[in-house]
Amino acid sequence: MSSDADTTIQSDTQLGRCGLDHTRAERPGRGVIHTWGSTLIPTTREAPSDAESPSHILLSRAGYIRKLGSGIYDYLPLAWRTLRRISQIVREEMDAAGASELNLPVLLPIELYAGTRRDADYGDLLFKVTDRKGAVAALGPTHEEPITELVKGSINSYKQLPINLYQIQTKFRDEARPRSGLLRCREFIMKDAYSFHTALEGAGGLNETYDKMYAAYTNVFRRCGLDFTAVEAESGPIGGSASHEFMVNAPSGEDTILKCPVSGYAANVEKCEIGDRGLHTLDAEPTGELAEVHTPNLPGIDEVGKFMKVKPDRMLKTIVFAVTRHDGSRHWAIAVVRGDHDVNEGKVKIAVREMTGDANATVSLADEKAARAAGFAIGYVSPKVINSVKGTLLIIDHDAAQGGFWASGADKPDHHVKHFNWKREVGPILADLRYVKVGDARNAMAGDPSPRATGSRLETARGIEVGHIFKLGTKYSQAMGLSVLDAHQQSRPVIMGCYGIGVSRTMAASVEQNHDADGIVWPPAIAPYHVLITVLKPDAPEHREAARTIADRLASSGMDVLIDDRDERPGVKFKDADLIGLPVRLTIGDKALAEGAVEFKARRVPGKGEIVPLSDTVAKCRAAMSG
């Protein structure tokens, strides 16, 4: 059960009084026995002033982590044991999936980003340092560039592929506002893996390895004892095509997940599709004469709506995007959604690429200064601007492509219009499919039609991202010149995949999901120790002997044991036991010991403990570990 190689029973003055054997265990698979007094567990009754999330509060109070600086934490002995357990589970599943472990530098020469320009994508999130010679380097947030450079210099033939390489390492991101302890910090522990292929399909192809990684991640989080959901996701600054996030289900999660209760489909907000929304029309008759309204000093659509006495769901929100084609030419696109909806940049990107036939076109929110110079009245744009800024693409969300009353921007600062009508205001270009597309352009919401089950509606849940897998394709290999000779001696760019797990984030996410009013409730597989033996009278010889006997039996069966040998009041020990959250507490006291027994208490089970004969403690504890 234990993955720790260290089987030493540590000693200190308290341990000496308990009379425990200090020698190293000889049998393989034996658990460890440590004492509270010989390690560092600085529990407190007060949480740090900046702690808000359950994991930040409890990991700090229970003596697992200590803040050293903004977004920077010490991992104390209890935390480090849990992190080692998580890392070992990750290693076992990665190795079983055919990946090989290595270790790459943390300090990355900035020149590595010359081809991918991902330093620009990361922006201020990328930590940069300058050495004494003026050379600039980055602290690695992920390692796509160095791993690509390594493989580029190590292989040259398709016969050497596929290969999957991984590491578990400290990463860095310069978060502007670190928060929630280990959930959003600037230094963190992560497993990142990268696979290399000559094909997408078939044996050895990217899709085969992607499926293996999906299964490995499922095994990792299941073995960690977590309730999680795998969701379809956007790739973000990593790039690539298909991707999935693994989300720990927790009410305190910062990410919204949308699920279909019938089909099991799940996706994050950025990726979630919306099912059939019925017919749309751009041919409806006007509801009245176009009326211009002066709307100065109104910073948002809600304020504009109140001023105009129009509900947000009867207003049109028009967002301007910059488009750069693969040939370098620059264009504009506008996306229109209802005022109570949010434009989905990923869906707009897909629509633009379909309309232009350019699968490599880049699409991003327009720079306000450049957009104004091109003729867009940012904040007051209406769909009819496609007639004045020639060549602009128009993507209309299905819910906005309807008849009835609409209000819109007036294409001039501080002005909006009432009774906007698609046919009257935009005109014949609406029928030109080269420039206009009606479809899905907004973020999905609870209650939207499911894209996988007719008649079903999407439901929302909260989650914490702990893993993310990507199909990168040739984004990095082409940018960095990684190619191999195929069977016909033709040079071909290597196809890549990328797979990350936040190890320290997984520890925090587990606490977010597994805690109560008294403290942490660890799943047995990742608890720092399996059993806490609370000795109420550490100076009493019979208590010491019982602790020695029970601990030795538990360790011999593979369980790791922590003995609370402190000279503290029982109430303090019991509160600390609940706070640190080990799966089982065994209490050695006079009354139970007189009956040849101890008090057994499973942390996950509410209420008082039960009296268990000394001879049954190992079996009882083992049952609790697997229950």
Task: Break the fold down into its secondary structure elements and pairings.
Blueprint: H1 13-18, E1 33-35, H2 54-61, E2 65-69, E3 72-75, H3 77-96, E4 100-101, E5 107-109, H4 118-122, E6 127-130, E7 136-139, H5 144-152, E8 163-172, E9 187-197, H6 206-223, E10 228-232, E11 243-249, E12 255-259, E13 266-268, E14 291-294, H7 301-308, E15 316-324, E16 330-338, H8 345-356, E17 362-365, H9 368-374, E18 393-397, E19 407-409, E20 415-418, H10 422-426, E21 436-439, E22 459-473, H11 475-480, E23 483-485, E24 491-493, E25 495-502, H12 503-513, E26 515-516, E27 519-520, E28 531-535, H13 541-556, E29 561-564, H14 570-580, E30 584-588, H15 590-594, E31 597-602, E32 610-613, H16 617-626
Helix pairs in contact: 2-12, 3-6, 3-12
